[in-house]
Design a protein that fits this description.
Layout: E1 3-8, H1 10-21, H2 33-43, E2 48-56, E3 59-69, E4 72-75, E5 88-89, H3 94-105, E6 112-119, H4 123-134, E7 137-146, E8 149-151, H5 156-162, H6 165-179, E9 185-190, H7 193-210, H8 212-217, H9 220-235, E10 239-246, E11 249-259, E12 262-270, H10 279-293, E13 298-300, H11 307-311, E14 318-326
Parallel strand pairs: 4-6, 12-13
Antiparallel strand pairs: 1-2, 2-3, 3-4, 3-5, 6-14, 7-14, 8-13, 9-10, 10-11, 11-12
Amino acid sequence: MAYSVSFESPQEVEAEWRKLLSKSADSAVFLGPTWLKVWWSEFQDERELSVAAVRRDGEVVGVAPLLRQNGTLMLAGDTEICDYMDITAEQGEEQAVLGALLDFLAKQEWDECLLWGLRAGSPTLQALPALAESIACKAEVEFEDVSPRVELPSSWDDYLGSLSKKDRHELRRKLRRLTGAEAEVDLIEYRTPEDVQAHMDQFLRLHTISREEKAEFMTPQMADFFKHISSALAEEGHVRLFQLEVDDSCAAAVLCFNSGDELLLYNSGYDPALSSLSVGLLSKALSLQKAIEEGKRYYNFLRGAEPYKYDLGAQDLNIYRCTIRRR
């Protein structure tokens, strides 16, 4: 089989890229053309964006979206809003795709190539050090962050039983206090593009008033990105927007992305006036319960080691970066 690699525009390879995702071991929303297109439309700068497409006998079997800045190549994205990245390859073709890609990149002008956001277990992470040696380069792997997640059992009761005695007691106590507060409590889920679009302003309001650092993060440009990416991904069936209603008032909201056997908690917000009812934590716990009911294997809290994630039973999944430098 003959492999060839070329730089193409995202538009040229988009249709084949989407088809490839269905054949990949990791089809997370951050790795697809929709995410790249919306992110780049909001945050494009002086860097050059192109997609290295790996073809096997003419068929796309690998895709690497890359940015070029001076002497550096890097995976396209931003650690502030893209929780992880990777080179997408057809399952079973990872080694061949990476080998062909590195042979191609060896002929380009660059000093270092930065592959960030690689999750533990990624075929890219496992194969790169040896492959880098084959093109007279050195690959350095560094810890970048954690992505705590819960491996979900088949029932809510089993999930509660998996928590430590202290965490199980606290979660049950908080749930009883919320449901026993002589208030009507309901978790509403929005999935359709129309519903998600209609309720994003409410989500953004709760996100902004939750904490000072969240208000600083949610600039007008970032708010536009949240609206556009949620709308675009909802069109593809990837959005789960949960709102916790207390007496018909929106107390908390959780924006999740549906990604294969995982539900990804992308961001959240709550009304500080109702913090005594732990609405922030419980909105996440109840969305986790929904993931169990839907048969998901994992509930992924994504980047960051915030304590509440471990209170809900999460275990760290490490994220690494691999920097390839010419010798």
